[in-house]
Specification:
Its EC number is 1.14.14.10. Belongs to the NtaA/SnaA/DszA monooxygenase family. The chain is about 40% helix and about 15% strand. By secondary structure, the protein is of the alpha/beta class. The protein folds into two domains: about 5-255 and about 345-410, Luciferase-like domain (TIM Barrel, Alpha-Beta Barrel); about 265-340, no CATH class. The strands form two sheets. Strands 1-2-3-4-7-8-9-11 form an eight-stranded parallel barrel, surrounded by eight helices. Strands 5-6 form a two-stranded antiparallel sheet. The model has no long low-confidence stretch (mean pLDDT about 90).
Length: about 425
């Protein structure tokens, strides 16, 4: 049995992570506002002994000028801290992690919300810090446009300092460039001390912030070499902040499609790919490249030269690199990207998927994975019933929880 075991998170996303999940014949199109749907997914993940469920959030429509049925099915959904509070009452062990933006919140209010969720759940909460990179979100908060990347991260660094100080009961009082806070929190620490800090930025600013503040880092990488380079880079940055490599768990996203045979799994994937409307795929690609007019280029032509983005710099670089490396047209790239939004995709049997996960885990490219099923609940049910037992058989994943808090699940130190 392996002495080191991987961590697993379930990335919740209404109908599923494939952009055409809403068109799957067994899709639950209004899943985003059905709390019973989320309760069932969380309970399945808890029964499979996952470390956490994770809710992403965006304070605005995800893509402009796109197929209305797709936009509606992907954009409707609960505010995530409210949803996770409901899930806290319906689960016992699994961690509950939510995105919240440092650009459109204030640290005292956000610290209080997450500390409340942490207490309500018995010490199972986590905050995924994002700076928000969409002009669509900026327009919903009275902003004249998206703040420059460096300015967003400067605000995020101060935000993280204030919120961790509040959670860790440091002396009250902060008067900084972006924030002023007078009082301590009016809620005590939970059994895990403070919510787990999660980060997902992959730019230099993002990795530096993660090395300084994060307990968990979500990442995106197509190849082993990309995943290994990110892993080694981030772990090496920790020493500058007096931290050890095991203080941060790196969990790349993975989109598995599993079946009893490779051919059956490939057929499942191909059927989903055939459901992608071209305008939806191109709109999604445009949003991640932070450009608004990709549709004016020939869809079967190459990706044009693009200016550097003030949005998601690391994701833009990843997509451009893939297009150049594999010689993909805009249509090819949009269809590939629509399956998992730039994350690693594996299609195969339980054994084949376990082999791939094991190789990256034991090869020093991941501490675990953020699982992104193509559609819910079917594809997650398949992963939970086929792949998880195979990982357990190999000694790579727990048979039962070792504790009750998210920090205990992840093997993280309790804050002082």
């Amino acid at each position: 049995m392996s002495a080191r075991q991987m961590k697993l998170g379930l990335f919740l996303w209404a109908t599923g992570h494939h952009i055409a999940a809403w068109r799957h014949p067994d899709a639950h199109v209004t899943a985003g506002i059905d709390v019973d749907h989320y309760i069932a997914l969380a309970r399945t993940a808890e029964a499979a002994k996952f470390d956490m469920v994770f809710c992403e959030d965006a304070a605005g429509l995800r893509e402009a000028n796109v197929n209305i049925a797709s936009q509606t099915s992907r954009s409707i959904g609960f505010e995530p801290i409210s949803l996770l509070s409901a899930l806290a009452a319906q689960t016992e062990r699994i961690g509950l992690v939510s995105t919240a933006s440092t650009s459109y919140n204030e640290p005292y209010g956000l610290a209080r919300m997450f500390a409340s969720l942490d207490n309500l759940s018995g010490g199972r909460a986590g905050w995924n810090l994002v700076t928000s990179a969409s002009p669509i979100e900026a327009a919903n908060f009275g902003a004249t446009g998206l703040r420059p990347h460096a300015d967003r991260y400067a605000r995020a660094r101060e935000f993280a300092t204030v919120i961790t100080g509040l959670w860790n009961r440091r002396p009250a009082g902060h008067d900084g460039e972006s924030f002023s806070v007078r009082d301590p929190l009016d809620i005590p620490p939970s059994p895990q001390g403070a919510p787990v800090m999660v980060q997902a930025g992959a730019s230099d600013d993002g990795k530096d912030l993660a090395a300084r503040t994060a307990d968990v880092v979500f990442s995106a990488a197509q190849t082993f070499e990309e995943a290994k380079a990110f892993y080694d880079d981030l772990k090496a940055r920790l020493t500058a902040y007096g931290r050890q490599p095991d203080d941060v768990k790196i969990m790349p996203g993975v989109a598995p499609i599993v079946a009893a045979t490779k051919a059956e799994a490939q057929a499942k994937y191909d059927a989903l790919q055939e459901l992608i409307p071209d305008d939806v795929g191109v709109a999604l690609l445009s949003s991640y490249l932070s450009i608004s007019d990709l549709g004016r280029y020939p869809i079967d032509g190459p990706l044009p030269e693009l200016p550097e983005s003030e949005g998601m710099k690391s994701r833009q670089a990843l997509v451009i690199e893939q297009a150049r490396r594999d010689g993909l047209s805009i249509r090819d790239l949009a269809r590939y990207f629509a399956g998992a939004r730039g994350h690693w995709r594996i299609v195969g049997t339980a054994g084949e998927i376990a082999d791939e996960l094991q190789a990256r885990f034991e090869g020093g490219a991941a501490d675990g994975f953020n699982v992104m099923p193509s559609w819910f609940p079917g594809e997650f049910d398949a992963f939970a019933t086929l792949v998880v037992p195979e990982l357990q058989r190999r000694g790579l994943f727990r048979m039962d929880y070792e504790g009750r808090t998210l920090r205990e699940h992840l093997g993280l130190k309790r804050p002082i």
